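Hi team,

As requested, here is the filled-out complex form for the uracil run. I kept the field names the same as last time so the parser does not choke. Let me know if anything looks off before we queue the next batch.

— J.
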Amino acid sequence: MVAALAPLELLERTRRGEPIDPQSVTDFVQAWLDGVIGDPQMAAWCMAVCIRGIDMPATQALTSAMIASGDRLELGKFGPTGDKHSTGGVGDAISLVVAPLSAAIGVKVAKMSGRGLGHTGGTLDKLESIPGMRIDLDMADFVRQLRDVGVVVVGANERLVPADKRLYALRDQTATVQNPSLIASSIMSKKIAGGAHAIVLDVKVGSGAFFEDVDSAREAAKIMVALGAPWGRKVRYILSSMEEPLGTMVGNALEVAGAAEVLRGGGAPDLRDLSIRITGALAEAAGVAPVGEGLAAAGEALESGAALRKAEQWVEAQGGDPAVWTDVSRLPAAPITLTVRAPTDGYVNRLDAREVGEAARWLGAGRLHPAQAVDPAVGIELLAKIGDPVGAGSPVAVVHCRETETGERAVQMMLDALGVSDTPVEPPVLVIEES
Ligand code: URA
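And here is what came back:
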């Protein structure tokens, strides 16, 4: 057996783009966790990985070392279990639909979600806009709810993959987030430690996403699928567009309201379609629907009201007001609304997801610094999306805000995010690729 490389040698070989053996990566990560080497060496290695890349065995070793840094849940005894992960988007309330919808068709969902990051929203912030909703269950309640209700969504457990929290913070400070192997190992270490056996990855592509081009999104998706295999995880992926926000609501309570419309059988077509696709893929990967029949099973559970009933049970079990799904006036609402109007006649040809996300963040729906509290009530409602015809002066969006001055700036940001052409425009293709 080849002896593992000393840390400095590993750094040099990675920097030169030479092969590195997996054991050296394992030892390097362990040495960093034990304090034998410090953050400068780890940051240097991440930078070398970003520039040169690493191969699959090295990525597997990194992922396994991160998983080994903490506890690992084993959910097999609860029956078919599933989880979904989105690489982050704007208006992406999919988890609020997919979690109860999956549970309604027999895939148990034990989900650990995150908060908003940058211009993108986070499931926890959205859930906390539901009056009474608790996202800090202890392990015994978490397991009980999974067993009895079939769906539970909480904040990240500090004991699962603590190495990722440290490594992500270091990458964030050293411009080393953007590498498919590092992103894939970060996401998959958490998903594998979370215990679900079927995993569907919704990898976003476009202006509002981590990946701005299809090739790098696909590369990361394929690495994630391969990382799950040795752990017995059935991983599927969908590459979906994030050129414009998903659905018609951007903001925490607003997105709960958007998800509620889908759960009641209507809602924005893109939010609904992608939720059904993801749930269908999850049902097939978890083995509760034969291949090719997952979509129909998911669609039926929405139509029949089974998903809505499951959503009510889920929220009630976590202390929240279950009536929010049928009466969205129970959600927090902002005191002021301002209308954004189309500057000219034509067709919407641009509704930049990142810029809309930034406008919502400016209003307080997201954070400008990590310690900031989000405002559950504020955000943006979209009345037109790419491809829609608009008339000069017609309403294209509504800004929900606390103060007129803040809202007026968001109106301007929305006008900057919007483009109108005088010739018809095709809406972006939502699902770019599915495996
Ligand atoms: N999300 C994660 O959890 N990790 C990354 O590295 C990037 C996105």
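Two things worth flagging: The chain has a mean pLDDT of 96. The longest strand covers residues 198-205.

Thanks,
J.
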